[in-house]
From TrEMBL:
The lineage of its organism: Eukaryota, Fungi, Dikarya, Ascomycota, Pezizomycotina. Pfam families: TPR_10 (PF13374), TPR_12 (PF13424). This is Kinesin light chain. Signal peptide: none annotated. It comes from the Eukaryota. Transmembrane segments: none annotated. SUPFAM superfamilies: TPR-like (SSF48452). PANTHER family: ATP/GTP-BINDING PROTEIN-RELATED, NB-ARC DOMAIN-CONTAINING PROTEIN.
Length: 544
C-alpha cells in the first residue's frame, strides 16, 4: 500500500475503529517507505508521521524518545507536533470518513470482531490483544484527551474483549467510566453506542433488574433523539426485549416486540428480513409462554415469507423450519417434528454437502428429535456419526464438536451408560475450563452435568466434591448472586434431596431463595420455583 503524502492525524479516527493490526501495518509501512524513498521531501513527511505514531501510541508502543528522534529527522519542532495533535482533537469522524485512507478498506478488514475471531482456541491471543489495546488507549488518551472519540473507541473495544473473556466486572468498570464521559460531553452519535454496551454487561453479570432498568433508560434516550422508528432505536428496544425475556417478564417483552413488528411492517413491509427477524423473536416469546398455537401461526408465516423471498436453500429458511419443528415437538406432534428436521438435514446436505459443519449441525438436531421421540438408541447412533465427522472435519476442539460431545454424554447417561458418559462430560469440562475459564457460566453448567452423571454412577462423594468446587469457582469468578452460581447451588440442593440429606437440601434451597427474592422479587418464575422446592423439602422433613 502506498502511504506517501498521507496525513495520519486526519485518518486516525477511522483506523481506531479498525483491527489493531492495520494500525501496526500503517506505522511499519511509513517506516519502510522512509528508508526506501530517495525523495527528501517524502522522507521528511514520513518521519513526521512516524513521530506522531510514537507520540500517540498509534501502531507503535508510546515512546517520547523515539518520537523526538523521528521528529528531528523531519526537520520540524515539538510545537509543530503539538499543533498537529491539537488539530486532530478538533476533527470529527464524518469530516474525513471519505479521505485517502478509505482505500485501506479494500485491503484490510475493518471493525474486526476480536471476540469472535479469538473466542475459542486463541484465548491467550485475545488476552494479549486486550493488554496491547489498553496500552494504546492510555497513550492516545494522554495525547488527545480521555473524552476524545478515539480514546473512547479503544477503551470500548478493551471492555468488549474483557466481556468476551467472561471478565464482566472489569468490563463494567471501564464501561461505567465511559458512560460518564459521554454523558458529560452530551450523548450523541458514537456515544449512544457506549450506552448500549453497559446494559449487555449488566445482563452477563446476572444483574438483570439493573440491565432492564439501564436498557429502558437507553431506549428512552434513543427514542427521544432519533425517534421511535429509527433503526438504532429498534435495535436497543430489541436488547431490552431480550433482557425482559431473560427475566421471564414475557408479557412486557411481547408488548415491545409487537410494537417493533408493527413499525417494521409499516416501514419495510411484512416480509422484509428485519421484520421477519422481529417476528421470529416474538414467536420465541410465545413459545416460552406455552402459547403453542400463536407460536406455530407466527412461525408458519415467517417460514412462508422466507421460502417465498429466499427460497428453500437459504440458511434463514432452514432456521425457521427448525424453529417450527421445535414448536411441533412441544405440541406433541413428534412425527411431524421429526419429518421437518429430516427435511432440513436433506436440504443442507444437498446444498452444502454431507460433511459441511452446518449439515452436521442439522444432523445433530435430527438426532435430538429422535431422542425426544423416545428413540434414545437411535439418537446415540446418529450423534456418534456426527461426532466422528466433526472430529475429522472441523477438529476435536471446535465449539460445535464440544456441543456434540456434551449431547452424546447426556444420551449415554439416559441409556445408563454412566462410565462412558462421565468420560465424555469430563472432556467437555476440561475444554470449557481451559478456553472460557473455570468460573465461566458454560463451564459451571458442564461441571454440574458431570456431577449429576457421578450421582447416577453411584459415586456420591465425588459428585458432592465436584459440585462444591463448582460453586466455589463460580462465586469467585462471578459473585454469590449470579444466576449461573444460583443454578449450581440449586442443583446441589437437589442432589442432597436425592441422597435424602434433607437438612442440607433445605438449608441450601433457603439460601438460594433469599438471594433470588432480593434480586428478582417474589413474582419471578425462578423465585417461585425455588419457593416450591423449599416447601417440598420442608414437607419431606415433616414426615420423618
Amino acid at each position: 500500500m502506498m502511504l506517501t503524502g498521507i496525513e495520519l492525524v486526519e485518518n486516525m479516527m477511522i483506523l481506531a475503529h479498525a483491527d489493531r493490526r492495520i494500525r501496526i501495518g500503517v506505522a511499519q509501512e511509513l517506516k519502510r517507505q522512509y528508508w526506501i524513498t530517495g525523495c527528501l521531501e517524502c522522507k521528511a513527511h514520513n518521519s513526521f508521521q512516524i513521530a506522531l505514531c510514537y507520540r500517540t501510541g498509534f501502531g507503535q508502543p508510546y515512546s517520547l524518545e523515539e518520537s523526538l528522534i523521528w521528529l528531528e529527522r523531519s526537520g520540524k519542532s515539538v510545537e509543530d507536533l503539538v499543533y498537529e495533535i491539537d488539530y486532530g482533537k478538533s476533527i470529527k469522524l464524518p469530516e474525513y470518513r471519505n479521505k485517502r485512507i478509505r482505500n485501506l478498506q479494500d485491503q484490510f478488514l475493518f471493525e474486526v470482531d476480536y471476540a469472535h475471531e479469538y473466542r475459542m482456541d486463541h484465548s491467550a491471543e485475545l488476552k494479549q490483544i486486550g493488554v496491547e489495546l489498553s496500552e494504546e488507549a492510555r497513550a492516545v488518551g494522554c495525547s488527545f484527551g480521555e473524552s476524545h472519540e478515539m480514546t473512547v473507541t479503544l477503551k470500548r473495544i478493551v471492555a468488549q474483549l474483557l466481556h468476551a473473556q467472561g471478565l464482566y466486572d472489569e468490563a463494567a468498570h471501564i464501561q461505567e467510566i465511559l458512560v460518564k464521559l459521554v454523558i458529560a460531553e452530551g450523548v450523541k452519535g458514537f456515544g449512544m453506542k457506549v450506552l448500549g454496551d453497559l446494559g449487555q454487561t449488566y445482563s452477563a453479570q446476572g444483574l438483570l433488574p439493573l440491565a432492564e432498568s439501564w436498557r429502558s433508560v437507553v431506549a428512552d434516550h434513543y427514542e427521544e433523539v432519533l425517534g421511535e422508528e429509527h433503526m438504532g432505536t429498534l435495535m436497543v428496544l430489541s436488547d431490552l426485549a431480550h433482557t425482559l425475556i431473560e427475566m421471564r417478564q414475557l408479557a412486557k417483552a411481547e408488548k415491545i416486540l409487537l410494537r417493533m413488528v408493527a413499525i417494521k411492517s409499516r416501514k419495510a413491509g411484512d416480509e422484509h428480513a428485519s421484520t421477519l427477524a422481529s417476528k421470529s423473536n416474538l414467536a420465541a416469546v410465545y413459545y416460552k409462554q406455552g402459547s403453542w398455537k400463536e407460536a406455530e401461526s407466527l412461525q408458519s408465516q415467517i417460514l412462508a415469507g422466507r421460502q417465498r423471498i429466499l427460497g428453500d436453500s437459504h440458511e434463514s429458511t432452514w432456521y425457521s423450519m427448525s424453529n417450527l419443528a421445535a414448536t411441533w415437538w412441544s405440541q406433541g406432534r413428534l412425527d411431524d417434528a421429526e419429518k421437518l428436521e429430516l427435511e432440513v438435514f436433506r436440504l443442507r446436505e444437498r446444498s452444502l454437502g454431507s460433511e459441511h459443519p452446518d449439515t452436521l449441525m442439522s444432523l445433530r438436531n435430527l438426532a435430538l428429535t429422535y431422542g425426544k421421540n423416545g428413540q434414545v438408541e437411535k439418537e446415540g447412533t446418529v450423534l456418534e456419526q456426527v461426532l466422528k465427522a466433526q472430529r475429522n472435519g472441523i477438529g476435536a476442539n471446535h465449539e460445535h464438536t464440544i456441543i456434540t460431545i456434551a449431547e452424546l454424554a447426556r444420551n449415554y447417561q439416559n441409556q445408563s451408560r454412566f462410565d462412558e458418559a462421565a468420560v465424555l462430560q469430563a472432556q467437555v469440562v476440561d475444554f470449557r475450563g481451559r478456553i472460557l475459564g473455570w468460573g465461566h457460566s458454560a463451564t459451571l453448567a458442564s461441571r454440574t452435568n458431570l456431577a449429576w452423571i457421578l450421582v447416577d454412577q453411584g459415586n456420591w462423594s465425588k459428585a458432592e466434591a465436584v459440585q462444591l468446587r463448582t460453586i466455589a469457582r463460580g462465586k469467585e469468578a462471578q459473585g454469590d448472586s449470579h444466576p449461573a452460581v444460583l443454578k449450581c447451588m440449586s442443583a446441589l440442593a437437589s442432589m442432597y434431596k436425592v441422597q435424602e440429606q434433607l437438612m442440607e437440601s433445605f438449608a441450601l434451597y433457603n439460601e438460594v431463595l433469599k438471594i433470588r427474592l432480593a434480586s428478582l422479587g417474589e413474582g419471578h418464575p425462578d423465585s417461585m420455583k425455588t419457593a416450591r422446592d423449599v416447601q417440598t423439602v420442608k414437607d419431606l422433613l415433616a414426615t420423618q
